[in-house]
Amino acid sequence: MTALAIQVQHRVGRAVLDTLAAVGRFAALVVEMGRGLTEVRVWLPRTLDESWNIGVGSFFIVLLISSFAGAVTALQAGYQFTGNIPIYVVGSVVTESVVLELGPVLVGLILAGRIGARYAAELGTMRVTEQIDALESLGRSPASHLLIPRVLACLLMIPILVIFADVMGVASGWFASKQALPVTDADFIYGARVFWRPFDAWYSIIKAFFFAGAIGFVSCYMGYSTKQGAEGVGRSTTGAVVTSSVLILLLDTLLAKLLLSV
Fold first, then answer.
1. Pick from 11-20, 131-140, 188-197, 214-223: least confident
2. How confident is the model at residue 5 (pLDDT cuts 50, 70, 90)?
3. Among candidate residues 117, 87, 111, the one with its CA nearest the CA of residue 188
4. Where are the domains of the chain?
5. CB 94, CB 192: distance < 8 Å
6. What would the pLDDT profile of 140-198 be if each residue is shown by its tens digit?
7. How far is the C-alpha of 184 from the C-alpha of 191, rounded, in Å?
8. What is the average pLDDT across 67-74?
């Protein structure tokens, strides 16, 4: 019994120390990125390139996912609709569901897999092949060359992609609801407007901004901290996707509590 208690204490202590060490490394990375912001001529053109890659490369999949999300929401509303509920409510259900939840969350999770895995794999490969060490030996800052452009590109482009996702989701829900229910354009528009609040759009963008930060910082940290060769690259890539996805869901809950509480 005593040996088991000692083993449990050892594992708990090791987990706590590893967590604190990871927090320290992440804080040091953020500080290094803050210092690298002064090198505008270095990170600005790279940020534009990364923004183009994120926007163009993710545009189709974002529109595809959001269109299916809006259509499924409308079809399920049609399945559960009863004659006791005004027909225009379907417009509110589709609009609020897509803008407040489905648009930013689905886009965040999809891009956590697409962008987070890519960034972690790229930086992890650079680390294990000593490309980052070579950059440091030349007196160049890895933060301004590699990290800042990726994080800023996420913060810039993911909210824009979420806006397109919201618009596409509502449009596809509008079309699908007309196929599943006897709802007119006037009914859908009235339902979409009657419960709409201007803050709803801002709430969607705020969530997208926080999700973008989670994806950018976590994936860059995981890739930058890679060890143990090719196996470490795979572990970092998987960890980046899983950690950023869990963080997105956690932020989704916290932001709903903080920003939507009555």
1. 11-20
2. low
3. 87
4. 1-36, 40-259
5. yes
6. 888 888 889 999 999 999 999 999 999 999 999 898 888 877 888 888 888 888 888 88
7. 11
8. 88
Residue 196 and residue 222 in contact, taking contact as beta carbons nearer than 8 Å: no
Give one DSSP letter per residue of the chain, joined into a string: -HHHHHHHHHHHHHHHHHHHHHHHHHHHHHHHHHHHTT-HHHHHHHHHHHHHHHHHHHHHHHHHHHHHHHHHHHHHHHHH--TTS-TTHHHHHHHHHIIIIIHHHHHHHHHIIIIIHHHHHHHHHHHHTTHHHHHHHTT--HIIIIIHHHHHHHHHHHHHHHHHHHHHHHHHHHHHHHHHS---HHHHHHHHHHT--HHHHHHHHHHHHHHHHHHHHHHHHHHHT--SHHHHHHHHHHHHHHHHHHHHHHHHHHHHHHHS--
Please tell me the distance from the alpha carbon of residue 244 to that of residue 231, in angstroms, as a whole number.
Answer: 20
Cβ atoms of 210 and 255 within 8 Å: the answer is: yes
Q: Cβ(187)–Cβ(91) under 8 Å?
A: yes
Length of the chain: 262
What is the rounded CA–CA span in Å between residue 117 and residue 234? 9
Q: Could you give the CA distance from residue 54 to residue 111 in angstroms, rounded to a whole number?
A: 9
Asked whether the CA dihedral 141, 143, 147, 151 is positive or negative, the reply is negative
Residue 185 contacts by C-beta under 8 Å, 6 or more apart in sequence?
Answer: 174, 178
Spatial separation of the C-alpha atoms in residues 124 and 136, rounded to whole Å: 16
pLDDT band at 262 (very low <50, low <70, confident <90, very high): low
| pLDDT at 82 (0 to 100) | 61
